Amino acid sequence: MRLVIIGGGILGTAHALAAIGRGHEVVHLEREVEARGATVRNFGLVWVSGRAANELELTLRSRRLWEEIGGKVPGVGFRPAGSITLVRTEAELAVAEAAAAGPTAAERGFELLDPDRVRALNPALRGKFLAGLHCSTDAAVESRQALPALRAYLEASGRYSFYAGAEARTVTGGTVIDDRGRRFDADHVLVCPGAAHSGLVRELVGDIPVRRVRLQMMQTAPLGEPLTTAIADGDSFRYYPGFAGEPLNRLNREESQAFTAARHKMQLLCVQRLHGGLTIGDTHEYDEPFAFDVDEAPYDHLTSVAEEFLGRKLPPVVRRWAGVYSQSIDPTAIVTRARAADNVWVITGPGGRGMTLGPALGEETADLLHL
Q1: Is residue 112 a contact partner of residue 298, using CB atoms and an 8 Å limit?
Q2: Which one, of 354, 301, 351, 292, lies nearest residue 321 by Cα?
Q3: pLDDT over 90 at 258, yes or no
Q4: How far is CA 225 from CA 193, 222, 304, in A?
Q5: What is the CB neighbour count within 10 angstroms for residue 193?
Q6: Residue 175 reports pLDDT greater than 70
Q7: At 334, is the secondary structure helix, strand, or coil?
Q8: What is the rounded distance in angstroms from the CA atom of residue 141 to the CA atom of residue 43?
Q9: What is the pLDDT of residues 274-300, one digit of tens each?
C-alpha cells in the first residue's frame, strides 16, 4: 500500500518506520524544514520506570524496538544506560522501597541501592542522598539527531520520500494537497500533528480529548566526566503513575514541595548527551495561553538539586528552551486515534511519552489498519 503521513516528529516517523518495515510505500510531509516540536525538545529518554502498569507491556515492547533500531541505525544514539531516582527524605525513600518491592519491579529492572552502591554504579554522583532507585531498563536516544538518522535509513529502502517545508492543507479521501498545490494520493492517510490541534486537525475530526502541556529545559556544556545513568529526583514520583499508592499519598500529605517546585510542577530529570553536556528539566504547565518567555526560578531550582546530587558545580548552561507536547486526557487511552474517514486517521496525544512509546505506537497503528 501507499501511505501519506503528515507530521515529521517522532510519532509520524515511527509510523513511517512501521509501514516501511512491512513492505509499504510512504510519502512523508513536514511543514517545517526539520521537526522543531516536542520531538527535539525532550530528554531523549526511553522511560520504563514510571509507566503505569496497564502500559508497561507496550513500554517494554517499545524499549526492545528502540534497541533493535539502535542496532540498525547507529545514528539514533541508543544506549541502555538505565536510570537512578535519588531520594533525599524518609517519605521519598518509602515510595522507592514500595516500588522496588512491587509486583512489576522485576519487569522494570528496579533495585534499591544504598549511597555506596549508587556511587559505584554512577561515580559522578558524589553529593547528598539517602538512596537511589535503579531502573536497569531505562534507556536514551539522541533526540536532536534521531529523526535525520531514521529518515536516511528509511530512504535507503527506496520506498520512502520526505517532503520538508510541505504543509498539508486539505485531505479528501485518500488525496492530500499541500500548500504548493501538490497532490499526494494514498491508500491511508495518517495525520500526526504533535501539539497542533487546530487547523487541519480540527477540520478533519473536530475537538478531540487532548490538551497541550508546556515545559522548560536547559543544556549545559560538557560535564567533563561520564554520567553513566540518567538521574531523577523524588519529585518525579509525583508525575509518574507507576509510583501510585499509599507511600506516595503519604509523601504528598506529609511533604510540601519547595515553593518553586510546587508552583511550576517540577521534577528533576537529567541525562548526558553524547557530546558530554547534560540535558536538565523539567516543568509542567497546563493552563493556556502559555507564556512566550521562560522563567528563571525553575532553572535555579533544577541547578541546585542537580548540584546537590553531583556534589559539584554544574558546567555553564549553554542553552535554554521551552516546548509544548500533546497529551491525551482520556484516562483509557495512551494515545488519541481519531478516525476522520475510512482511510484517514489523526494520531496524537502520547504526552511526555512520545519518544519512549513511538516505535510501539507505530506498530500498534499498523496492526489496527492491517498493514
Answers
A1: no
A2: 292
A3: no
A4: 38, 8, 19
A5: 25
A6: yes
A7: coil
A8: 8
A9: 999 999 999 999 999 999 999 999 999
217 Ramachandran zone, left/alpha/beta (phi>0; psi -120 to 50): beta
Domain spans of the chain?
Answer: 1-77+141-208+333-370, 83-136+210-328
0.90 surpassed by pTM: yes
DSSP of 77-107: --B---EEEEE-SHHHHHHHHHHHTSTTHHH
What is the C-alpha to C-alpha distance for residues 274 and 218, in angstroms, rounded to an integer?
16
Rounded distance, CA 190 to CA 359, Å?
15
Are 277 and 221 within 8 A, CB to CB? yes
Going by C-alpha positions, the residue among 99, 215, 65, 76 that lies closest to residue 153 is 76
pLDDT band with cut points at 50, 70 and 90 for residue 256: low
Angle between helices 246-254 and 90-100 (to 10 degrees): 170
Question: Pick from 298, 308, 306: which is nearest to 261 by CA?
Answer: 298
Q: Give the up-direction half-sphere exposure of residue 315: CA atoms within 13 A in the CB hemisphere.
A: 16
pLDDT, average across residues 218-232 = 98
Residue 64, H or E segment: helix 56-72
Contact of 165 with 30, CB cutoff 8 Å: yes
Q: What is the mean pLDDT of residues 133-161?
A: 97
Three-class SS of 241-272? HHHCCHHHHHHHHHCCCCHHHHHCCCCCEEEE
Mean per-residue pLDDT of the chain:
96
CB neighbour class for 39 (10 Å; exposed up to 12, middle 13-18, buried from 19): buried
Range 122-135 average pLDDT: 98
CATH 3.50.50.60 fits 1-77+141-208+333-370, yes or no: yes
Q: What are 257's three cell numbers?
A: 514541595
Closest CA to 349 of 188, 207, 232, 176: 207
Residue 262 has pLDDT above 70, yes or no: yes
pLDDT in tens, 27-67: 999 999 999 999 999 999 999 999 999 999 999 999 999 99
CATH superfamily of 83-136+210-328: D-Amino Acid Oxidase, subunit A, domain 2 (3.30.9.10)
